[in-house]
Q: What sequence folds into this?
């Protein structure tokens, strides 16, 4: 009786944590898309202004966008490896 109750509680906890993990990944994906969209819009606005300083700033933001994409790809691979129990690329180390 008590063992069955403990098993049920542990299973419920496992399912809850799996749900929280998926919700966290979904939120991470949505945040990434919003940041990406904001950076792209800022780059386009700076490029449209045509100034030399604005072009330099747009290049810096473009580099930031690329870094953001690489970091998100790393987090996605890490999440996928946790879901499938396959070791992540780079032994779990973040990209440089």
A:
């Amino acid at each position: 009786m008590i063992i069955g109750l403990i098993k049920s509680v542990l299973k419920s906890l496992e399912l809850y944590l799996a749900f929280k993990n998926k919700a966290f990944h979904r939120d991470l994906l949505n945040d990434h898309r919003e940041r990406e969209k904001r950076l792209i819009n800022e780059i386009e606005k700076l490029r449209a202004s045509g100034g030399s300083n604005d072009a330099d700033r747009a290049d810096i933001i473009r580099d930031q966008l690329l870094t953001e994409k690489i970091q998100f790809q790393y987090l996605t691979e890490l999440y996928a490896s946790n879901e499938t129990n396959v070791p992540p690329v780079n032994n779990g180390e973040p990209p440089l």
